[in-house]
Amino acid sequence: MANIDVPTLTMQFPLLNQLVALKEVCWFNPKITSLREGLPFVGLDAADIQDASDRLSRFGSFLMKAFPDTARDQGMIESEVVDIPAMKSQLEAMSETEIPGRLMLKKDSHLPISGSIKARGGIYEVLTHAEKLAIDAGLLSESDDYSQLLSDTFRQFFSQYSIAVGSTGNLGMSIGIISATLGFSVTVHMSADAREWKKAKLRSHGVNVVEYDQDYGVAVEQGRKAAEQDPRCFFIDDENSRTLFLGYAVAGERVRKQFDAQGIVVDANHPLFVYLPCGVGGGPGGVAFGLKMAFGDHVHCIFAEPTHSPCMLLGVHTGLHDGISVQDLGIDNVTAADGLAVGRASGFVGRAMERLIDGYYTLTDEQMYRLLGLLNQCEGIQLEPSALAGMPGPMHVSEDRDYHRRLELTPEKLRHATHLVWATGGGMVPPEEMAEYLAKSV
Ligand SMILES: *Cc1c(COP(=O)(O)O)cnc(C)c1O
């Protein structure tokens, strides 16, 4: 990888001074394009999302039987969209900014099976792998009832294979739980950020947890190396996987159906703004891709990162993508938002999606904790710190006149806007741990 000449780079991109100073920043990318112009750079299309959606449907009977909390939606791993009007008032009071439009929360924090957004991509990739192995072995065909995958025959079959992944916690949770359920031998390489209870929960499912004192990048590299030694081991590559990305992308069509059912209109006069917490980028990137395919140019996606881990903002803003890490600038990548503690962005997502992501901002850990407490107080909803990263987004969008002008977002349109904050995790945090989070929020 090229050497980074920080002084020259900073001269060219003065915003980096603020990143280095750990200031909260917001940057709307002036180079975004329409979906039509941007889509060819993604290299995936509507048919790929449909394929992922169909695959998940085939697994419906299996998921329903293995995880009764998915039975409510016939084996679909999906979360609610809810209004948070009291939080909206609090945010307006706190920031002295009016937020025109409606404020809603997408509760991926409460997705079945693993209680985070990783229950979309992570689980989907393991299911894809399992289906391929079983079909190639002549044990399964697409028209079969997949609930038979829970039988001893299949568990024995899958136990010949292993799965490995590097994670800050939540991806490991998703992949560990679903892999162990199918009978795979599974190893999760956990970065130093990973919470103790997540490791304990995985071990109780029979997952092999390997712990590192270093950050996510190191955990992924070690996982990749270990997997290379074993031809029967499948490594789930969070930094580059198109499969993970498509698992996340299915969310777009699902949100559109949920909006239709609630009579929420998204069109030229009713824009939708979606605020997505970003770590390596696969989750928010995949969801943003799905949303763009579902709502076209009327949806505007904005990524949120901790001030100590602004890897995607850095990669897209400088155009260096995974060629630069926050550590190259002397930023430490240490944050209470363990789901977002990533120093180097995905090499795939930024390049594929940069034209279709309106903007990026950072926020401090203190701000995440404050918002965590507020949301608990006024809406009774409990999230982990990472999941609050999207909450300041509506203020940034409401305040930036240049952005409004460039996108022709008139006051009239903004009054009819829907702001959707993507809550990415927290549904399975143990009560003692949640009490500690809440204690830090005051
Ligand atoms: C993983 C994660 C994210 C971000 O997803 P990436 O694919 O890493 O960008 C956001 N919030 C939580 C809680 C997560 O676990």
The strand count comes to 11
Supply the CATH architecture of the largest domain. 3-Layer(aba) Sandwich
Distance between the termini: 43 Å
Name the overall outline.
globular
Unreliable parts: none
The oligomerization state is single chain
Number of helices: 21
Strand order of the largest sheet: 1-10-9-8-11-3-2
- SS content category: alpha/beta
CATH topology of the largest domain: Rossmann fold
> Which ions, cofactors or small ligands are bound in this entry?
pyridoxal-5'-phosphate
pLDDT averaged over residues: 96
Helical percentage: 40-55%
Strand portion: 5-15%
Cofactor: pyridoxal 5'-phosphate
Catalytic activity: D-serine = pyruvate + NH4(+)
Domain Tryptophan synthase beta chain-like PALP: 97-394
InterPro entries: D_Ser_am_lyase (IPR011780), Ser/Thr_Dehydratase (IPR050147), Ser/Thr_deHydtase_PyrdxlP-BS (IPR000634), TrpB-like_PALP (IPR001926), TrpB-like_PALP_sf (IPR036052)
